[in-house]
Amino acid sequence: MGKFPVYPAGAFVRGVELGNLWKGADFLEVSAYIMRVGKTGEAYRGYLGEADVTSLGQGHKYPLGGGLAIVCVEDAVVQGETLNRAVYDSDGNFQTVLAGDLAAVRYEGGCFKGVCKEDIASIENALKPVGRIAYGKVCLKSSSTLPKWEGE
Q1: Of 68, 76, 79, 22, which is closest to residue 46 (Cα–Cα)?
Q2: pLDDT band at residue 25 under the 50/70/90 scheme
Q3: Integer distance in angstroms from the first to the last C-alpha of the chain?
Q4: CB under 8 Å to 144, separation ≥6 — which residues?
Q5: 86 and 94 in contact (C-beta within 8 Å)?
Q6: 150: in domain
């Protein structure tokens, strides 16, 4: 998957507003909650943007429940990518750590669908920013301390 193209909500691509782009019965782009990591190893605050469905389709889909999924690079932690978020289930139990850029989307029946503002609380409740892993423990950061993504 690598770096997937992400556009700000309401952006125009090829002269057409993103919300109006179609590929057959599917959108070419969907609204996603994007959680980026920088080249120097920092994780950024999540934000709503648009992600390319073709690029998302190449990524690993990690189900969060409630129709939500995280799209990421499979084995990114093993490959040495920057740690991004720790995943917790609805009971608050730790599940795994994800690394690299992440996109939260709705994924149902093999189709990507956009997330909305109402989904953000569920996403942020399940995904906590990772500070580091030390002595077998995942140390978290507060989301409010993360810098805002300003683009490349």
Answers
A1: 68
A2: very low
A3: 18
A4: none
A5: yes
A6: no
Average pLDDT, the chain: 82
Number of domains the chain contains = 1
Q: How many residues does the chain have?
A: 152
Residue 91: domain span? 6-145
pLDDT for 21 equals 39
Decide if 47 is inside a domain: yes
